[in-house]
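haha ok so turns out i had the wrong file open the whole time. this is the CORRECT one, sorry everyone. sequence first:
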Amino acid sequence: MKKRKGSVVDILPSMIMVIAAVILITVFFGLYQILSLNEDVKQISRKYMLTMETMGYLDAASRTSLMQDLSDLQVTDIDLTGSTMTDAGYGNAVYLQITCKLPIEQLNMDGNDMLRFFFEDGTIPIRVRRMSTAKN
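then structure:
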């Protein structure tokens, strides 16, 4: 048997597949990070919605604690506009509306060089709205 001469063309498809797999894995972990943070914000909102059901509104102490819990997740631009801040009374609707921005790292390409990738900090706006009935 004769030994065949190899060339770059023989290994090129494998290299392209490896690069594509690395890019897909990186995108997957980026999306997982966003979904995980979003779920954490929803769990925190649920916790405070249960408190609001009991009290009939979001009091100052709970508001401060809510803001601190969200800040611990590195969430920025927290806005509670639209939330029930005064006593709604028994049987009336209470609302919790959180608008904030989730921090993420995005994979970007340099516009001049298609083979140069870098991570860039960014934010994604999210909005969580909850409604329940006051039981105070």
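The chain has two helices and three strands.
again sry for the mixup
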